[in-house]
């Protein structure tokens, strides 16, 4: 029989059963305490009771910290995910107990976040939260939780960026890169434009994976999970041959954060030149857009077929590759005659 007593202006209920840990809860009204006690006792009688204390005592923020320590380090995108978790930890939703985060709470977070960033970023945030709950439930055996992300509407994916470098912009970016304090940013940009390699792939590339004789760079670890070898153009080969060898064996010995900062400074410098000359600035240019530009250039070379380009870029889904085929109408007109 449950023990219910008044403590101040609240009602405390304690359920004691042999073979089960004592269960204690407090309520503002006595009928609530009685109802909770009956529920716990009936679950214990039926043998379906689960200890939900961990879900009630662990905040979402504490669970995210554990996830970052135990799960994130094993991922390829560990740097980006750690940053994403850091942003999440700054939101009030992470103060709630893990078992008391409702779909409504996640929906509020979604709507607030959409005021700051694009839908793709929010989708990644929600995917992270969803996976956290699955890990907590299945691997950490935390009882009494349900995945609140499953109960909300995901933002629609944004449309693929229809973006290309405009005449003169590449030259201006490379001039700015040549003036940078970081000596690696210019070859970093040049290799991205020549190989269509992702930023992370370039930053992980090691000299022992580059064969200057056969003109190929081997990537054992890629986003889609499959290794691939990237052919090196004459220009890419020249860039690599001119590079000094770093002691750590990497071709571009920059951290992810250093590469981001160097890229941002480079674009700012290029835009200062544009303002001085009274020409349009480069707007909303991301480093990943260089992969888009490089892949589009591959399509502009008529001697390369779709499957050949896919083998270079690493796209497994040819439908995704179509996002990168925004060829200039003027160039197509030249080919049509």
From TrEMBL:
CDD domains associated with the record: INT_Rci_Hp1_C
Instruction: Answer whether the UniProt record assigns the keyword DNA-binding to this protein.
Output: yes
Q: Which residues form the signal peptide?
A: none
Q: Which residue range or ranges hold the Tyr recombinase domain?
A: 159-337
Q: Which residues are listed as membrane-spanning?
A: none
Identify this protein by name.
Site-specific integrase
Q: Which organism is it from?
A: Thiohalorhabdus methylotrophus
Pfam families listed in its UniProt record: Phage_integrase (PF00589)
